[in-house]
Design a protein that fits this description.
The complex is a heterodimer. Helices cover about 70% and strands about 0% of the residues of chain A. Chain A is mainly α. Chain A has one domain (about 5-55). By secondary structure, chain B is an all-alpha fold. Chain B has helices spanning about 30-40, 40-45, 50-80, 90-100, 100-135, 145-160, 165-190, 200-205, 210-225, 245-270, 275-280, 290-295, 300-335, 350-370, 370-400, 415-455. The two termini of chain B are about 15 Å apart. In chain B, α7 packs antiparallel against α13. Chain B has a single domain, classed as Up-down Bundle (Amino acid/polyamine transporter I). The chains are: A mainly alpha, B mainly alpha. The interface between A and B is large, with 45 and 69 residues.
Chain lengths: ~60, ~475
């Protein structure tokens, strides 16, 4: 066993830790907040400017 | 004209249309530069030299500059459109607003495929680099590359999950180091600082264009590697503080950086390495800049270019995760894909479900597919995306002429860049067909099948009212 064999084990372990951390946080977030809040994002602030300025006839599609 | 000024500096940071949790506007022009150049610069460290194998050193230079023209057009067109469509999803969102849903769906998939495949290719490359370092430092036997490939993807996905500012600041640092390494190598080997080791005349003599002009055409395929991915800057559109200023600035500074880096890379490598060795990216010069550093005899340069190669690889994978997840997120938000993917993390303000979802896909390609196939599918998806851009800008200018919407940047000489880009895309498609005809046909077949699926099934779920939210006036002629 040389240094690189230890590094192989270290890389496996660290990958697992990072993956578990993301999975744990993901599940915690999904159970803490409602789906409505989590998926409330809409396109960028340009629309906010439109609302602010009450731009009329601005939408298409 | 709508009473909207997206160049406003005082209206930032508002949540539109009832947004409770949205992406965070924290990035500046330097982050945009780091995102674009970071994705691309690995192409200078490896890959571009296949163009030398296709047609010799001069063919590689011609391909480098023609591809440079192609990407300058891409950067200019992208800068104009995205400075008005400042939303996550980049070209997907542009297509949605300017052309229509089917084009948008296809462009969204081009983006996700191009970036996820490139991420996988970078992870494979990083694993290979670790194995080279292991054998150079006395490790006996074959290093198992898998844990290092997985670690690269997991670490960068974790970084992306935790926040965009840290992710792209990390990219800024490692991309700057990788770019400076190329400059230092050029200064050290060309004779500007100390004695030069360049020998262009002798290395080129007798085989200026070994396969004639058809070789130049074939070299165009790999000429794209010098710049492939600079269009990724647009994915940061919803997270920059000032989209109208930062996106054009970062993108155009990025393409200028790459034009310099690409030309210097060609000059250094073709002046030190014989073209037969340089052009063989599998059994010859896998990492030509690193090889050039080794031939310089300087231990410092070997270390610098070694780190430069690794950093460029990591920066590219990091930017690809950022961009693929934004495109996937934007498609989910509009219900082009399940709306579940359109979620934003309330604390980190990142598209966390899209980031996590794409991790196993990248791992499957990184661990189970050969590098050249992965790269080819990435290039083909990118090329399909570039072909969409000229159509996009021509329709954009026709439907919304300059006086109807204020742009953060107006690109000059329209429609010359659009026509040039379309012509060069046609040439490159032919070049790709020469080498990878089967993959090209398979890829186009795949996109036709998914387009039919979208048209006949998926489109009924699309949130049609909410997907067009830009405060633009009605398009001319409608």
């Amino acid at each position: 066993m040389d240094l690189w064999n230890w590094l192989e084990y270290g890389a496996w372990g660290l990958s697992a830790l990072l993956g578990l951390h993301m999975a744990f946080d993901w599940l915690k977030t999904d159970s803490t907040y409602s789906e409505e809040v989590l998926t409330s994002s809409r396109e960028g602030e340009i629309e906010a400017l439109a609302e602010q300025h009450k731009a009329g006839g601005a939408h298409h599609g | 004209m709508a009473d909207v000024d997206i160049t406003s500096q005082t209206m930032d940071g508002m949540g539109p249309h009832g947004t409770k949790v949205g992406l965070l506007r924290v990035l500046g022009p330097a982050h945009v530069w780091a995102l674009g150049v970071g994705i691309v610069l690995v192409g200078e460290y490896m890959g571009w030299n296949f163009s030398v194998g296709k047609g010799g050193a001069y063919a590689a230079l011609i391909a480098c500059w023609f591809a440079g023209i192609l990407y300058s057009c891409v950067a200019m067109i992208d800068s104009e459109v995205t400075s008005t469509v400042a939303s996550a999803g980049g070209q997907y969102t542009q297509a949605k607003h300017i052309i229509g849903p089917l084009m948008a769906f296809n462009v969204g998939l081009y983006l996700v495929f191009a970036y996820t495949m490139l991420e996988a290719a970078n992870a494979i490359t990083a694993g290979y680099l670790f194995s080279v370092v292991a054998s150079m430092t006395g490790h006996e036997g074959e290093l198992d590359q898998r844990p290092f490939i997985i670690l690269v993807i997991m670490f960068l996905a974790w970084l992306n999950y935790r926040g965009v500012l840290a992710t792209l600041t990390f990219n800024l640092v490692i991309t700057a180091v990788a770019f400076c390494a190329i400059i230092v190598l050029f200064l050290s080997t060309s004779g500007v600082l100390g004695g030069g080791i360049m020998d262009h005349a002798n290395l080129f003599e007798g085989h200026e264009l070994p396969y004639g002009w058809i070789g130049v055409l074939a070299a165009m395929h790999f000429g794209l590697w010098y710049y492939l991915g600079i269009e990724g800057t647009t994915q940061a559109a919803e997270e920059v503080r000032s989209p109208a200023r930062a996106l054009p600035f970062g993108t155009l500074a990025g393409i200028m950086t790459l034009l310099i880096a690409a030309t210097l890379t060609w000059y250094v490598c073709s002046g030190i390495l014989p073209w037969e060795y340089l052009g063989d990216g599998v059994d010859g010069a896998v990492a030509p800049l690193f090889d050039a550093a080794r031939l310089s005899g300087s231990t410092g340069l070997v270390w610098l270019l070694g780190f430069g190669t690794l950093f460029a690889t990591l920066a590219s994978a990091n930017g690809c995760i950022n961009d693929a997840s934004r495109a996937w997120f934007a498609m989910g938000r509009d219900k082009y894909l399940p709306g579940w993917f359109g979620a934003v993390h309330p604390r980190y303000r990142t598209p966390y479900r899209a980031i996590v979802f794409l991790v196993p896909i990248a791992l499957i390609f990184a661990l189970g597919a050969p590098l050249d196939q992965v790269i080819t599918f990435s290039i083909l998806s990118g090329l399909l995306g570039y072909t969409f851009m000229p159509l996009n800008i021509i329709l954009f200018r026709r439907k919304w002429p300059l006086e109807t919407i204020k742009r953060g940047y107006e690109h000059p000489f329209h429609p010359v860049p659009a026509i040039t880009l379309l012509t060069l895309c046609g040439v490159t498609f032919f070049a790709v067909f020469l080498g990878y005809g089967t993959q090209l046909v398979a890829m186009i077949g795949f996109y036709i099948v998914v387009s039919l699926w979208f048209h006949f099934w998926r489109y009924r779920f699309v949130n049609r009212g909410a997907q067009f939210t830009m405060p633009w006036p009605k398009p001319r002629g409608y």
